[in-house]
Amino acid sequence: IQSKLPNVGTTIFTTMSQLAAQTGAINLSQGFPDFDGPQALREAVGRHVMAGHNQYAPMTGLPALREQVAQKIARSYGRRVDMDAEVTVTPGATEAIFCAVQALVRPGDEVIVFDPCYDSYEPSVELAGGRCVHVPLALPDFAIDWQRLSDAIGPRTRLIILNSPHNPSGALISRAELDQLAALIREREIYLISDEVYEHLVFDGVAHASVLAHEELYARAFVVSSFGKTYHVTGWKTGYVVAPPALSAELRKVHQFVTFCGITPLQWALADYMSAHPEHVDELPAFYQAKRDLFCDLLKGSRFTFTRSPGTYFQLADYSAIRDDLSDVEMSLWLTREHGVATIPVSVFYQTPPKDLRLVRFCFAKREETLRQAAERLCRV
Ligand code: PMP
Ligand code: GLN
C-alpha cells in the first residue's frame, strides 16, 4: 500500500512505555500520573453508568459539562463564552486538534509549528493536504524566535499552532508575546490552534497567559484543553475546544463525522465533580510544583543539569556530563535498560534536531515514592 503518512512510525510514547514494561524500569517517559484521579470523580462515573447515562451524548457535549467549562473559563480568564456556540467537548485534546486542523487546512496550505512540537500536529496537517513549516524555538529557554517566525510566515500560511505550557520543555508564552503575535498576524488571514492542555500546571506564582484572555487572538483561535491532564485521568481521553461561533461551527462539521460525541458517563462525572470542586484547578499548581521541586531537589545529587520547569508535568535534563557520546535516543534506551528509568528523548519532537542536543524528558506526575526511587537510580548514573 502506498502510505498516506510514509514518515509516521510508532510513537515514541508507545515505544518507551513498552520498553519500560518489558525491562521493569520506572516509567518517567510517557506523560501520565501513576496515581488516580479524585475518588469522588471516579465514583461519579459508576453512579452515572448505573443511572442509565449510557447512550450518545449530544454532539457538542453534555450541556452540564459545557456549562462547567464556561464557568471555569470565566473564573480563570475573565472571559464569558457562550457554552452553546463556543464550547465543544471532544474525546481528548488530540481529537480536538485533529478536527480543528481538518476544518481549516486546505491542500497546499502551510501550518507553522514550533519545534520541538507534540507529535500529533504534523500527521493531522498532512492528512488535510497541508504542509508544516517548522520554526525552532530558541535554546536554552525554548522561547519564540520572532525573526524566524516572521520569516516563516508567507502567502500560504493558514494556521499557527501554539502550545503553552509547552510539551516537552515546560516553557510558557507570556502575555507580551501573545501581543507580539497579534501584531505580527493582524493584517493576515491566519488562524490559531492554542494547545493549552497544561493550562493549570504553571508554577512559581506565574499566571497562565491563555489565548482565551486575549481578545484579538481569540477571535481567530481554537483553544484546546484536556480533562485528562487536569483531573489526573489521561485514559478518559476527554477534552474540549473553545472557539468563536463561526470557527466552532466549522470544527463541529468535522467532529460530528470523526467521532460524533465524547463518552457520556465520563462527561456526567466531570460535570458533577467540577461543579462540586471548583477549587481543584486552583490547587493544581501547588500540587505539581511540590512534585517538580521534590524531583529537582533529589536530582541535584546527580550529574544531570537542568533549570526547573516553569510548567507542565515534565522536567528536561541535560546529560552531557554523563554520556556525551550518546544521542538522546541512545541515552533514553541506555537509561531504561541499564539504570531502570525510562525517559523521552527530545530530538524526536524536531524536524531537524539541533546538533548535539543532549536532553531527555522526565515526567514527574508520579507518587513521592516513585520519584524518590527514580531519583535514587538517576543519582547513581
Ligand atoms: N497536546 C499536548 C501538548 C499533549 O501533551 C497531550 C497529551 N499527551 C495532548 C495534546 C493530548 O491530550 P489528550 O490525551 O486529551 O488527547
Ligand atoms: N502527551 C503525552 C506525553 O507527551 C503522551 C500522549 C500519548 O501517549 N500519545 O507524554
TrEMBL record:
Residues 25-378 form the Aminotransferase class I/classII large domain. Its cofactor is pyridoxal 5'-phosphate. Gene3D superfamilies: Aspartate Aminotransferase, domain 1 (3.90.1150.10), Type I PLP-dependent aspartate aminotransferase-like (Major domain) (3.40.640.10). The keyword Secreted does not apply. One of its GO terms (molecular function) is pyridoxal phosphate binding. It comes from the Bacteria. SUPFAM superfamilies: PLP-dependent transferases (SSF53383). Keywords: Aminotransferase, Pyridoxal phosphate, Transferase. The keyword Secreted does not apply. One of its GO terms (cellular component) is cytoplasm. NCBIfam families: PRK09082.1 (NF006569). Belongs to the class-I pyridoxal-phosphate-dependent aminotransferase family. This is 2-keto-4-methylthiobutyrate aminotransferase apoenzyme. It comes from Azotobacter beijerinckii. The lineage of its organism: Bacteria, Pseudomonadati, Pseudomonadota, Gammaproteobacteria, Pseudomonadales.
